[in-house]
Design a protein that fits this description.
The complex is a heterodimer of chains A (224) and B (429). Chain A is an alpha/beta fold and 224 residues long. Chain A is built from 7 helices and 10 strands. Chain A has a single domain, classed as Rossmann fold (3-Layer(aba) Sandwich). In chain B, strands 1, 3, 4, 7, 8, 9, 10, 11, 13 and 14 form a 10-stranded mixed sheet that branches. In chain B, strands 2-12 form a two-stranded antiparallel ribbon. A two-stranded antiparallel ribbon of chain B has the order 5-6. Classes of the chains: A alpha/beta (224), B alpha+beta (429). Chains A and B meet through helix 1, helix 2 and helix 3 of A and helix 1, helix 12 and helix 15 of B.
Amino acid sequence: MSLLELKNVSKIYGDLHALDNVSLKVDTGEWVAIMGPSGSGKSTMMNIIGCMDKPSKGEVLLDGVDISKESAKSLTRIRRDKIGLIFQQFHLVNYLTAVENVMVSQYYHSMPDEKEAMQALERVGLADRAKHLPSQLSGGEQQRVCIARALINYPELLLADEPTGNLDEANENIVLDIFSQLHKEGTTLVVVTHDPEVAEVAQRTITLGHGKIMKDMINENFGR
Amino acid sequence: MFFRMIRGALTRQRGKMLMIALTIALGASLATAMLNVMLDVGDKVNQELKTYGANITVVPKAASVLNNLYEVEGGETTEGAYLREDELGNIKTIFWAFNIVDFSPFIDTEVSLPGGGTATMVGTWFNHYLSLPTGETLYTGVQNLRTWWDIEEGQWLDEVADGADTCMVGAALAKANGIHAGDVIRVNGRYADANLRVVGVYDSGDDADEQIYAPMEIVQELSNTDGYLTSIEVSAITTPDNELAIKAAKDPKSLSVSQYETWYCTAYVSSICYQIQEVITDSVASPVRKVADSEGAILEKTELLMVLITILALVGSGLGISNLVTASVMERSNEIGLLKAIGAPDRSITAVVLTEIVLTGIAGAVVGYFVGFGFAQIIGHSVFGSSIEMKAMVIPLVGVLVVVVTLLGSIPAVRTLLRLDPTVVLHGR
């Protein structure tokens, strides 16, 4: 069953077609990597899937709801309830500790629960760094806090934008292991990346070019 | 979580918040100083002006009729027309008793001096102790009403220490008759003679330089007017006249009931005069127009100046606060973008940002209030030579001003942030 479906989606800025008549389906529990060079439309697609932007044309169905027709207020609610976001730059609130950064996401979703936030940090191996400020954490640790924050509300879709772009190899492996674990638990993952190694570990890789889907292939080595 | 976020922002961004608090403190201190000075400046200027003498003269009705006939202003007296000394204390029982700063009775008589010359001898209070039926006690007399007198020899006459048989002599009279402080002079009145010790010689710069000033009872004895006086000078803190006061001064009966009440319960010089006449039998109290008008004009101009300075100070500090708050909020565009991306509603983001700024503003306002009160004291001492009274109403006024200015200053920034597209700050698109 499709969790996400794009039907003939275009995003046009003046003469530029950032996305040009793109259609794709992502099933529940699937791990999809979206690849492509700069300017291929990866970020535009991520923004549309992540309910932070609307397409110029076409439909975007998330869990059966056409989010391309929703108001800004509804999109905020959908982001809060259905999507977990992971950023390349981590984007943690610099004056809150690791656990508080996780709790912020709970606060806007339902009720903050420190115990649950600690469990989320434990899941990404950061329980002992819970009381540290972002400035006291390494890049890899900050990204793991970001993942814990994205997971805390049990989102239906985890959307990651270049999640390993600012990490060294060791931390990249840690993050990919976490993704692998999440996938096994049934989480749907869409990972935007330009790194072939990150794309290789995904179940399916979609390659964009000039706003169009150039390639959509199942990774035969997935899970090995 | 809301308060954890607020606490985190306040405690872990101390430098930034301190900067905002300092700017707000500066604005609040200016507002506090100027408001305190403005609210106190009326009393201060009035007190300052009171040092230039009385602004109301009370004379017997008979004397006043003659004065009016000959268009003489002030306390020229007529033989045979007197006020009663036992009614003097009543002046401090009128509705505006607390506005009566000083008053002093006068009685004068002609005396001849040993050298063959004559002089006017004025009986008055110097530093008279008065115990009123209201329980109030005060020292009043010409020591307070003639502050410009320059004591050339000796000192001011002290009614208690120097006793009754004493006097002060005007500089011109003393020079003409070779009188010095410490001398005993014999004066011959119409009904009695007296030997008086000269306590001081003064230079007044007016007619009083040709006169002798002595305690009341001496002059009353010499002129056989025991218990009577010819005029009273009153120094009162007054409100500048307006149309109502001018109309009332002409004829209080021409006022409607509500106008009369407003006029009676306002410290216009005409209202105070009217009330003095009510308590002193057969008297006419009239303002010394030159003094009263000048006081009113100076007071009005000073207050207007202070109001303008206060408004300018507030506008200036408001702009400063607004700029800093806007800059500070704009710096947080990443954080706001993130909160929007993870699903924070606009009202929640606004609440967090505004609460932080208002709390910082309140902290700045508290510091600014006390610093401003210090500024007010510096202004008070350097301009008026006295402290500025702490006016309670300034506290809520400054509080409201700071909150309003801080919130108004934050509105443009918050509006910009609410329009912020999270994709711009999160992806730098």
